[in-house]
Design a protein that fits this description.
Helix 5 links the parallel strand 8 and strand 9. The chain folds into 2 domains: about 270 residues, Aldehyde Dehydrogenase, Chain A, domain 1 (3-Layer(aba) Sandwich); about 180 residues, Aldehyde Dehydrogenase, Chain A, domain 2 (3-Layer(aba) Sandwich), CATH 3.40.309.10. The relative contact order is 0.14. The strands form 6 sheets. It has a 7-stranded mixed beta sheet, sandwiched between helices. Strands 10-9-8-11-12 form a 5-stranded parallel beta sheet, with helices on both faces. The protein is built from 15 helices and 22 strands. With about 475 residues, the chain is of the alpha/beta class. Bound molecules: NADP nicotinamide-adenine-dinucleotide phosphate and magnesium ion. NADP nicotinamide-adenine-dinucleotide phosphate (NAP) binds next to helix 7 and helix 8.
């Protein structure tokens, strides 16, 4: 069993209280993985202080030199990909293939932002005054707090931390419970790549206890959060008095529309991947499949067959298609919503039960005859539960897709280009896919939701990250 530590000011340290909490494998509940420091506000203040002390030197370090450290970290993480992926599967439960893909993605993110170190300059503007140079420069914000969820425990920290660092900010990073070890693997790669002390600080413990100090400290100039809508909105209110910059990416209840002319096999395969893959624990998971009447019965038969066929088990077993829910609490939430769906009159077609025993396992679950007004069709479950909503035509499908408070990702399965583009224009979602799963994102393009899925302030990833992690200064130089 491992004894993990915080990383503050370049040193591996305990929480000031000495308290620790245990983490275990969701696929083998009796298997204890290790203990992590249980930090409080005092530890947060210590980490923020270290980040503040490190800031001026790091900000003054040339961006290409900062990028070189990111590149080194990407190489180290890539060399550790297999062991990091195995640890992630033990910690979070996703299959080893899913963990490998995620660590690989974190490697790519670091590589992308390493290159951005060469491209982060400002702009020169035409001046209306003779003899004047008018230009802008990008400056880092200062200390930023990064708060992440457990479901992509290395990719999300990577897509926040990499741009924060390359643009010259210093970071206090708090991973979620059930995601600490994966977050630590990223921090370890940075530490080993030679990041100066205090530039990246890692503190573990309960968000409910540490949150206020992370968000409302006047030293913190930016907060980047990914997680649930209730926690995100709470954080937003706490950041207001400081007028600090806030980025929130939150829940989803993402639609996949399947039209009559869709490639049936592809639609079934991608619906299963989007809705049951990652045990449904993706913010971009498809939990509402809006299917046109002409194809609905054949589509349902296909998806039902996959739900019955998929092997549920320990993600380390190569035969496993779907790992466990991350925790007892998440499993209970999944089962509760399955009850709610049945009591609302939706028709349970496949799955619906927990099991096999020994882990927080749940069957891939399919409901038919779901109506948009049901809680089953409105609230984020974050489990492998797919609702089928039947519609007459594309306009009705778009209306149903948009009848919700969330707007993260959406996809359509069709061979008709006109319909595909009409959907892409009309659907209220920050990410739209055509003949692709609702999940999966490019590292070099902006990402973020609409409506209650986001604070709607700044996008993440790709060139959009520059906007959040820098402030612009405009400079007028009269040399005439
Ligand atoms: P969560 O419960 O909201 O927690 C997210 C993070 O916030 C965790 O690190 C958590 O720490 C911390 N936290 C909890 N209470 C806090 C507080 N009062 N102040 C500050 N921080 C606090 O979300 P989760 O259960 O980890 O993740 C699942 C959610 O994330 C889903 O809603 C999913 O849709 C969303 N998500 C969104 C995206 C996206 O990009 N839109 C991507 C992935 C996931 P503890 O773990 O210690 O409580
Ligand atoms: Mg949580």
């Amino acid at each position: 069993m491992d004894h993990f530590m915080n990383f503050i000011n370049g040193e591996w340290v305990e929480a000031l209280s000495g308290d620790r909490s245990m983490t275990h494998n969701p696929a083998r509940i009796s298997e204890e993985l290790g203990t992590f420091p249980k930090c409080s506000a005092q530890d947060v203040e210590r980490a923020i202080g270290a980040a503040q002390d490190a800031f001026s030197t790091w900000a003054a370090t040339p961006a290409p030199a900062r990028g070189a450290i990111l590149l080194k970290a990407s190489q180290l993480l890539e060399a550790r990909l297999q062991e990091t992926a195995q640890a992630m599967t033990r910690e979070e439960g996703k299959t080893l293939a899913e963990s490998r893909a995620e660590v690989g993605r974190a490697v790519e993110i670091l590589r992308f932002f390493a290159g951005e170190g060469w491209r982060s300059g400002g702009a020169v503007y035409p001046s209306s005054v003779a003899g004047e140079l008018l230009y802008s420069r990008r400056e880092p914000l200062g200390v930023v707090s990064i708060i992440t969820p457990w479901n992509f425990p290395i990719a999300i920290p990577a897509w926040k931390i990499a741009p924060a660092l390359v643009y010259g900010n210093t970071v206090v990073f708090k991973p979620a419970g059930h995601g600490e070890q994966s977050g630590l693997a990223l921090v370890q790669a940075f530490a080993d790549a030679g990041l100066p002390p205090g530039v990246l600080n890692f503190i573990t413990g309960p968000g409910s206890v540490m949150g206020q100090a992370l968000v409302s400290s006047p030293t913190v100039k930016g907060v980047s959060f990914t997680g649930s809508h209730p926690v995100g909105t709470h954080i937003y209110t706490q950041a207001i008095p400081n007028l600090s910059r806030v980025q929130l990416e939150m829940g989803g209840k993402n639609p996949m529309v399947v039209l009559d002319d869709a490639d049936l096999d592809l639609a079934v395969t991608l619906a299963a991947r989007s809705g049951f893959g990652l045990t449904g624990q993706a913010c971009t998971a498809a939990s509402r499949i809006i299917v046109q009447n002409g194809i609905a019965d054949r589509f349902r038969t296909g998806l039902e067959a996959i739900a019955r066929k998929w092997v549920i088990g320990d993600g380390l077993d190569p035969a496993t298609n779907m790992g466990p829910a991350v925790s007892q609490a998440q499993l209970e939430t999944d089962l509760e919503y399955i009850q709610v769906g049945q009591s609302e009159g939706a028709r349970l077609v496949a799955g619906g039960a927990a099991g096999p025993e020994g882990g927080y396992f749940i069957q891939p679950t399919l409901f038919d005859e779901v109506h948009v007004g049901m809680r089953l069709a409105q609230e984020e479950i974050f489990g492998p539960v797919i609702c089928l909503i039947r519609v007459e035509n594309l306009d009705e499908a778009i209306e149903r897709a948009n009848s919700i408070s969330f707007g993260l990702s959406a996809s359509i399965m069709t061979r008709d280009l006109h319909k595909a583009f009409h959907f892409a224009n009309a659907v209220e979602a920050g990410v739209v896919k055509v003949n692709e799963p609702t999940t999966g994102l490019a590292v070099n393009a902006p990402f973020g939701g609409f409506k209650n899925s986001s604070a709607n302030t700044f996008k993440e990833q790709g060139p959009a990250a520059l906007e959040f992690y820098t402030r612009q200064k405009t400079i007028y130089v009269n040399h005439g």
